[in-house]
Amino acid sequence: MIESLVSHYGYVAILIGTLLEGETILVLGGLAAHRGLLWLPGVMACGFVGSLASDQFFFFIGRRHGEEFLARRPRLQAGVARARGLVDRYNTLLILAFRFLYGLRNVTPLALGMSRVSTLRFALLNVVGAATWSVAIGALGWYVGSAAQQILGHLKRYELAAAAAILAVGIGLWAWRRWVRDAPE
Questions:
Q1: Is 40 in contact with 138 (CB distance < 8 Å)?
Q2: Boundaries of every domain in the chain
Q3: What is the pLDDT of residues 91-148, one digit of tens each?
Q4: Which of 32, 52, 145, 167 sits CB 3.0–4.6 Å from 37 for a disulfide?
Q5: 91-96 long-range contacts, Cβ below 8 Å, gap at least 24?
Q6: Chain segment 38-92, per-residue pLDDT in tens
């Protein structure tokens, strides 16, 4: 049942998941690829497209509506301020690597859009960064599946529990971040 759902809707789930956050769903996609349910290059391609589209969208939001967008979302202001400080010091490196910086991943494209970084420069470096991230995180999922199979032998009986645990940790981290950011100061 679950294998059928993953085989039929896995790529769509990865695309949508990476539009919203990304790491957990892409690791799960890599695990599914290791199990033969999905094709690893397809998993990585969906992660790439979702990440690239999301980051480009928030760059353009920052470019066109940055200050008013932030005014309506005060919980983002501290993260954007941190990212803006990093933009000034580590411009190119930040554009290439922000996806790997937990806590800054979602606000950095917004901060970059509000900076003097040119649209073309961001787009080109964003392609390189999204490709690197999707290959690295997708491969991580593949190798987690491989390592689990080596350690556990027959992964089949544990794979649902392992996938559920990874998903639960991802949802838990997301919920914790939302709860902490929305807590009264």
A1: yes
A2: 2-182
A3: 899 999 999 988 788 899 999 999 999 999 999 999 999 999 999 999 999 998 888 7
A4: 32
A5: 91/117, 92/125, 95/121, 95/122, 95/125, 95/126, 95/129, 96/125, 96/128, 96/129, 96/132
A6: 999 999 999 999 999 999 999 999 999 988 998 899 888 888 999 998 988 898 9
